[in-house]
Automatic annotation (TrEMBL):
<dbReference type="InterPro" id="IPR036179">
    <property type="entry name" value="Ig-like_dom_sf"/>
</dbReference>
<dbReference type="InterPro" id="IPR003598">
    <property type="entry name" value="Ig_sub2"/>
</dbReference>
<feature type="domain" description="Ig-like">
    <location>
        <begin position="180"/>
        <end position="282"/>
    </location>
</feature>
<dbReference type="InterPro" id="IPR007110">
    <property type="entry name" value="Ig-like_dom"/>
</dbReference>
<keyword id="KW-0393">Immunoglobulin domain</keyword>
<dbReference type="GO" id="GO:0007166">
    <property type="term" value="P:cell surface receptor signaling pathway"/>
</dbReference>
<dbReference type="GO" id="GO:0009897">
    <property type="term" value="C:external side of plasma membrane"/>
</dbReference>
<protein>
    <submittedName>
        <fullName>HHLA2 protein</fullName>
    </submittedName>
</protein>
<dbReference type="GO" id="GO:0042130">
    <property type="term" value="P:negative regulation of T cell proliferation"/>
</dbReference>
<dbReference type="InterPro" id="IPR013783">
    <property type="entry name" value="Ig-like_fold"/>
</dbReference>
<keyword id="KW-1133">Transmembrane helix</keyword>
<dbReference type="InterPro" id="IPR013106">
    <property type="entry name" value="Ig_V-set"/>
</dbReference>
<keyword id="KW-0732">Signal</keyword>
<keyword id="KW-1015">Disulfide bond</keyword>
<dbReference type="InterPro" id="IPR051713">
    <property type="entry name" value="T-cell_Activation_Regulation"/>
</dbReference>
<dbReference type="Pfam" id="PF07686">
    <property type="entry name" value="V-set"/>
</dbReference>
<dbReference type="GO" id="GO:0042102">
    <property type="term" value="P:positive regulation of T cell proliferation"/>
</dbReference>
C-alpha cells in the first residue's frame, strides 16, 4: 500500500499502517536503513533505534490488537521527509505499507508601508521559511533592486526583510517572494488625492478583485498615516470592527466611510487587503 502524509514543521503527525489483526505482532518502522521504531513481545524494542528518532516515536499500544500499527512522529524536522516502510508480521499474515512524508513549513509574509517627511519606504517580509526565500521587486513593469536587506536565522528557518526606498508614486510597486513550496506577491499603489470640506462625509474606496473576497484568510485593514503617526481605523475579516469614532467599513465594497470630517482627518489612508498568497496596499491622500 502507498500513502502520502503532509506534516507541519515542529508539530506532530501520524504515519498510518493498518494490518489484518492477528497474534504475536512484530512491527518494524524503517526509513531507508534507519531503524525508526520496533515492537515485538508485546512491547517497544528501542535499543537499536536510530538516534535521530530518539524520544520522538510512539505506537498506539491499545490499538495494535485491532490492526493499527500507525506511528506518531513528534517535533517534525525537515530531515524527516521521505519514504517510510511499515512491516507487520503476525502468526497469520504479513503486511507492508509504504508511507511518504512531506514536511511543510508554516511561513508567513507581509508588506509594510512607511512614510516620513522626506521619503517613502516599503518593507517586504518573509518569516520562518526554508530554504531562504528569493525576493524580487518590480516598479511598473521594470525589475528594480532592493535598497536594503536584513536576514535572521531561527534554527534551520530563515526570516528576511527587503526594503525599497522610493520617491516616485506614479507607478505601482510589487514585491515577489519565491519558495519551492509557494509563491507570495504584494502590490503597493497610490491613488488620486481626495478633497472634502469640513463637516461633510466621504467614502474612501479600496481596490480589490472580487475573487479574493471569497478566499479563506481574507482580511481588510484600514490605517491612517498622519505626521508619521500610524493609527488603525477599522478592519474586516468576516465581521467588521471599528477602532475610532466616526469611521466604519462598508461591507459591500470595503470602502472606508468617514463622517463629520475635521481638518485633523487629513492624511494618507492605507487600505491593506490580504489573502494567504497576496497582499494589496492602496494609498489615498485626503485633504479636508
Amino acid at each position: 500500500e502507498q500513502e502520502t502524509v503532509t506534516g507541519l514543521f515542529s508539530k506532530d503527525c501520524i504515519l498510518p499502517c493498518p494490518f489484518p489483526p492477528g497474534d504475536d505482532e512484530v512491527i518494524y518502522w524503517k526509513k531507508g536503513d534507519k531503524n525508526v521504531h520496533s515492537y515485538y513481545y508485546q512491547k517497544d524494542q528501542l535499543e537499536r533505534q536510530d538516534p535521530d528518532y530518539r524520544h520522538r516515536t510512539h505506537l498506539f499500544h491499545e490499538n495494535i490488537p485491532g490492526g493499527n500499527a500507525s506511528l506518531k512522529l513528534s517535533n517534525l524536522t525537515l530531515t524527516d521527509e521521505g519514504p517510510y516502510s511499515c512491516y507487520v508480521g503476525t502468526q497469520q499474515t504479513k503486511t507492508e505499507v509504504e508511507v511518504t512524508l512531506h514536511v511543510r513549513v508554516s511561513s508567513y509574509y507581509a508588506l509594510e508601508y512607511q512614510k516620513t517627511d522626506t521619503e517613502r519606504m516599503l518593507k517586504c517580509y518573509a518569516f520562518l521559511t526554508y530554504p531562504a526565500p528569493r525576493i524580487s521587486w518590480v516598479r511598473g513593469n521594470m525589475s528594480i533592486l532592493e535598497t536594503d536587506r536584513k536576514e535572521a536565522r531561527d534554527g534551520v528557518l530563515y526570516s528576511l526583510r527587503s526594503d525599497q526606498n522610493f520617491i516616485n508614486t506614479a507607478d505601482p510597486y510589487y514585491c515577489h517572494i519565491h519558495l519551492p513550496y509557494e509563491d507570495w506577491a504584494a502590490e503597493w499603489k497610490m491613488q488620486d488625492q481626495l478633497s472634502n470640506v469640513e463637516g461633510s462625509s466621504t467614502a474612501i474606496p479600496c481596490e480589490y478583485s472580487s475573487n479574493t473576497t471569497t478566499s479563506e484568510g481574507f482580511s481588510v485593514v484600514w490605517t491612517l498615516n498622519r505626521n508619521a503617526v500610524i493609527s488603525v481605523l477599522a478592519s474586516f475579516n468576516g465581521t467588521s470592527h471599528s477602532y475610532q469614532p466616526r469611521v466604519q467599513i462598508n461591507q459591500s465594497d470595503f470602502s472606508l466611510v468617514l463622517r463629520d470630517l475635521t481638518p485633523n482627518d487629513s492624511g494618507e489612508y492605507l487600505c491593506n487587503i490580504s489573502t494567504p498568497h497576496y497582499t494589496k496596499l492602496t494609498v489615498r491622500t485626503l485633504q479636508v
